[in-house]
Design a protein that fits this description.
224 residues, alpha/beta, TIM Barrel, eight-stranded parallel β-barrel, two-stranded antiparallel sheet, 8 helices, 11 strands
Amino acid sequence: MWIKICANTNLEDAKLAADLGADAVGFVFAPSPRQVTAADVSRITPYLPEGIECVGVFPSLPAQEIAGISQECGLSTVQLHGGVSMELVQQLYDIFNGQTKLVQTVHWQVDGDAANEAVVAQHLREIAAADLVDRVLIDSKVGAANGGTGVTFDWNAAHAALTQAAPGLKLIVAGGLRPDNVADAIHRLNPWGVDVASGVEQSPGRKDPEKLSAFIRAAREVNQ
């Protein structure tokens, strides 16, 4: 189970996540209480253990701007969080030429109507058909807030939509995950990975060591 601890704002938290066994640490460049700058992240990534995946979470910025920030920060992965734009994905795919991984976020509208499932499924089919990115993060969207809400989406409704529309894609589940529910999410959705931010915090941008340890342990123990 691939585990990403997202919305890091300082070296202490990012290093702790790596030391506890996370596969990836994330840094949010989108507007958020946890937003960081390229300068912030450039002071963190050089001091993380070798092999940890460093993920930048970006809104819909121009491809060259995203690529420039990624290079400055030493990121190994770019996560697109501002909606699905296959044009932007194609541009970044061409710029990175396989040197930087891409993750596309698809938002599950928590307060949406029944058509939401069809919208998510269509996005997944579109991403799979383009064959430019093989990892897709499914995150909760509440109103206009993209992520960081601490709210789960309907895992039962999502199960059929995700399994039917996304064969071959590596699905990462996010949105409202915590130490006490991550195992249930994994059992219900059988994802390739899980992603957490607010669920392991003591305050926005500051991780809680006990919650962090418990989350990673709970996710790891599911398939043992």
